[in-house]
Design a protein that fits this description.
The chain has 147 residues and is an alpha/beta fold. Helices cover 48% and strands 16% of the residues. About 13% of the residues have low confidence.
């Protein structure tokens, strides 16, 4: 009986380890693309500029006088974007924007339902910037390298 329990634990533990490794591997290779409207004359953006624009700290970056961010509603890509580029959790991010709104400093950026909606919005609005998962088709927009 004792050996039987030990035998049953090993496969379960091995499955758990394999699942965790798989999730880590998937997350390590998951990628969010930063996209901009085609009118923007830029090929790359710094992580600091991404954070600055998407936290409302600044709408002015080296390639545009007034860059307009667009957000995805809460989903895995949005959470990965916040983690990778903004360094905030969802609650912190929303609280930051509410503070700017109530202080009269900035309006809330559009928050769209799908990645396809973000691509369409960015493609048709001057100086728009957004983000999508790398597997999402993104015709009509430019993908920026993040440095």
């Amino acid at each position: 009986m004792k050996g039987e329990k030990k035998f049953m634990r090993k496969p379960a533990f091995a499955l758990l380890v394999a699942a965790a490794a798989s999730l880590f591997h998937a997350h390590a290779h998951a990628q969010v693309l930063i996209i901009v409207s085609p009118d923007m004359k830029v090929e790359s953006i710094s992580r600091d500029d991404v954070r600055s624009v998407f936290t409302g700290a600044s709408s002015n970056v080296r390639f545009g006088p007034h860059v307009n961010p667009v957000l995805l509603k809460r989903c895995a890509v949005h959470d990965e974007f916040l983690s990778t580029y903004v360094g905030m959790l969802e609650g912190q991010f929303r609280s930051n924007w509410r503070g700017l709104l109530f202080a009269g400093q900035r309006g809330l950026p559009p928050s769209l339902d799908s990645e396809a909606d973000v691509v369409d919005y960015v493609a048709h609005h001057n100086f728009a910037i957004g983000y999508v998962g790398k597997a999402t088709p993104h015709p009509g927009v430019k993908v920026l390298a993040v440095k």
